[in-house]
Write a structure and sequence with these properties.
Layout: E1 3-9, H1 13-24, E2 31-38, E3 41-48, H2 51-58, E4 66-72, E5 87-88, E6 92-100, H3 103-112, H4 122-137, H5 140-150, E7 153-161, E8 168-173, E9 178-182, E10 185-189, E11 201-204, E12 210-214, E13 217-221, E14 227-228, E15 233-234, H6 250-256, H7 258-266, E16 270-271, E17 274-275, H8 279-283, E18 293-297, H9 299-316, E19 320-324, H10 325-328, E20 340-345, H11 351-362, E21 366-371, H12 377-381, E22 384-387, H13 400-419, H14 425-447, H15 450-460, E23 465-470, H16 473-489, E24 492-497, E25 514-519, H17 525-536, E26 541-547, E27 559-563, H18 571-589
Parallel strand pairs: 18-19, 18-20, 20-21, 21-22, 23-24, 23-25, 25-26, 26-27
Antiparallel strand pairs: 1-4, 1-10, 2-3, 2-4, 5-6, 6-7, 7-8, 8-12, 9-10, 9-11, 11-15, 12-13, 13-14, 16-17
Helix pairs in contact: 1-2, 3-4, 4-5, 7-13, 7-14, 9-13, 9-16, 13-14, 14-18, 15-18, 16-18
The chain binds 6-O-phosphono-alpha-D-glucopyranose.
């Protein structure tokens, strides 16, 4: 959510910032802006809308060798030129990710000192607070420290000060920020993908530290302002991984990366046909002593949790609760000391999930993070971590992250079950073989459905509402399928457990109402067919996601997408591919912005 980039060096900063902001645009795209040092001081140029508009505004600007930039996802104040970052004064400009929670108090304090405010943002209050202290202290470091004593909330901030024309100051709390050296200067960024063309090395700033970047050095100051030595980390993936690689959209590329992503995530964790996961290490106690499992997450990761719940309860017979992180935190959850809280998050930075993790830790409950971004805040703070190795996910609508999350939860469930003696070693081996070989093969086969998914999407694209129904794990999957469709095509979708439709919502089914039904579960096929008939007789236009080879009674389906067959446990892994493809093509046919759907952000770092 929101993206930060800054550069100080020997080359023109502005093209570097625009290039970086374009790479960060997936994190926020309401508006963007830069503040750059020029011969008369600091100048800010901002624009509502996409980076291309900002780029246009910057044409003709003189060179600058030190600048900060931001792409915004609005929280306080609508997207507009004036609410765009950077915010500041003649003396200081800042870019900010996060939320200044006590901005009203700061505003009052500053108003009394004679400050006025032009934007509705919380960030402007932080900028002017730093300005106030800078006017007293004359030192950027002291001004930042004094301001931070008053600020509460979450922030990653980059700042430039008049009087220090080649320096960028950077600091953070609860929101990531990196400092990185390159051949011709230093960068700050909230996301390494923004600067991969220039460097692969970076330092992850810790809370309380201030980084001072000059063209030739990065100095990290500890809380008492003493310089500290920090090792550089190196990015493990290359720039191609963060580029479209010939695909029209990141989303399509990421959908196609799924067979590999699943293999990469699982293969190193299976030896001699069995999962090598060490439950005692991951859960902090052996399976016999484990109480309940709470899976906590947001959005797509929450839906992965729902599938994980089916797998763990089915195989290991351990009770699992799946909670939305934003609810978990405020409901005073019942957590017992033997329980395990699993936080699932692609980014590892989602504020609600982070808050849930911290709550569990405060309560003394063991935490395990399933995270895609190594070194992210959630990965760092959880007691143990299982990394999904999907590579960077850029499209806002999550696809490959979902698949690797459920793949890893399956593997975890198999290990739990084996350790709990609820399945035999032979069964565990069979499950593992299927998971590591048949599942990636089925995903690859499902990717051959692109043309059919595209033509199916074309048929349904003019509907204003679609129902998704399924049973068992496919009912959880229906929620993810509906979410994908809603996120990127803006068609209203409802997901339902198929058996529940008749308890109310069937009243919404009239002539031609589209119902997308998952008919994949052999054991509940009869019931599912009855549910489909219930909607069909009320005029629904039924599109079946149907397991290949499953007998389909006449007259229940208007359209069919055959889903490559797997054992029931793993069917969601091939079902989701077709659902993602239909959502993707729906968005394309409707002319929507697939990778950057309106109002959404990839990583939501506010609660
Ligand atoms: C945002 C994204 C969703 C994502 C959710 C959780 O809302 O738009 O696609 O599923 O955050 O993100 P996380 O990084 O924690 O998995």
């Amino acid at each position: 959510m929101c993206g930060i980039i800054g550069y100080t060096g020997r080359k023109n900063a502005l093209p570097r910032l625009i290039e970086g902001l374009k790479a960060l645009e997936y994190r926020g795209y309401d508006s963007a802006g830069v503040a750059f040092v020029h011969k008369n001081g600091i100048k800010a140029v901002k624009s509502k809308g996409r980076i291309a508009l900002l780029e246009e505004k910057l044409k003709g600007e003189q060179e600058s060798f030190c600048a900060i930039g931001h792409t915004r996802w609005a929280t306080h104040g609508e997207p507009s030129d004036v609410n765009s970052h950077p915010h500041g004064t003649d003396s200081v400009y800042i870019v900010h990710n996060g939320i200044i929670e006590n901005y009203a108090v700061i505003k009052e304090f500053l108003t009394e000192k004679g400050y006025s405010f032009e934007s509705e943002t919380d960030t402007e209050t932080a900028a002017k607070l730093i300005d106030w202290f800078y006017s007293k202290e004359k030192s950027p470091i002291s001004a930042i420290r004094k301001a931070l004593e008053m600020i509460s909330g979450s922030y990653a901030i980059g700042a430039v000060f008049e009087g220090y024309p080649d320096k960028i100051y950077a600091f953070r709390k609860d929101s990531p920020l990196l400092a990185a050296p390159s051949e011709d200067g230093g960068f700050i960024t909230s996301d390494i993908s923004a600067i991969l063309r220039h460097t692969r090395e970076f330092i992850r700033l810790e809370e309380g530290e201030i980084a001072v970047l000059s063209p030739d050095s990065i100095e990290i100051l500890s809380t008492d302002n003493t310089p500290i030595e920090r090792d550089f980390e190196t990015v493990s993936w290359d720039i191609e991984a963060a580029e479209k690689g010939g695909y029209d959209h990141f989303m399509l590329k990421e959908i196609f990366e799924q067979p590999d992503a699943v293999k990469k995530t699982l293969s190193p964790r299976v030896t001699d046909g069995l999962p090598t996961l060490d439950i005692t290490k991951l859960a902090g106690r052996c399976v016999g002593e484990l109480g309940a499992i709470h899976i906590v997450a947001c959005g797509t990761a929450y839906h992965a949790g729902l599938i994980g719940q089916y797998a763990i309860e089915k195989l290991a017979r351990i009770p699992v609760k799946v909670e939305l992180a934003s609810e978990f935190r405020y409901k005073n959850p019942i957590l017992r000391k033997n329980d395990l809280v699993i936080i699932i998050s692609q980014s590892g930075e989602t504020a609600d999930s982070l808050a849930a993790l911290r709550l569990a830790k405060e309560r003394g409950v063991r935490t395990l993070a399933v995270v895609n971004v190594a070194g992210s805040t959630i990965a760092q703070e959880a007691d143990s971590v299982l990394l999904t190795w999907a590579g960077p996910e850029i499209a806002v609508a999550s696809t490959k992250a979902f698949s690797v999350q459920i793949a890893l939860l399956y593997l975890f469930a198999i290990r739990l079950a084996l350790d709990s003696d609820t399945i035999s070693e032979e069964e565990a081996r069979q499950y593992c073989t299927e998971l590591t070989t048949d599942v990636p093969a089925a995903i690859s086969k499902a990717l051959d459905l692109t043309d059919l998914c595209s033509s199916t999407a074309q048929k349904y694209k003019d509907n204003s509402s679609i129902f998704f129904i399924g049973r068992g794990a496919s009912s959880a999957l229906a929620h993810e399928a509906a979410l994908k469709m809603k996120e990127i095509s803006y068609i209203h979708c409802e997901a339902y457990a198929a058996g529940e439709l008749k308890h109310g919502t069937i009243s919404l089914i009239t002539d031609g109402t589209p119902v997308f039904a998952f008919l994949t579960n052999r054991s509940t096929a009869d019931k599912m067919i009855s549910n489909i008939r219930e909607v069909k007789t009320r005029g629904a236009r039924v599109m079946l996601f149907c397991r290949e080879g499953m007998p389909i009674p006449d007259g229940i389906a208007d359209d069919i997408i055959p889903i490559p067959s797997l054992s029931q446990l793993f069917m969601p892994m091939s079902e989701i591919i077709a659902a993602q493809l239909v959502a993707y093509y729906m968005s394309c046919h409707l002319g929507c912005d697939v990778d950057k759907p309106r109002n959404l952000a990839k990583s939501v770092t506010v609660e």
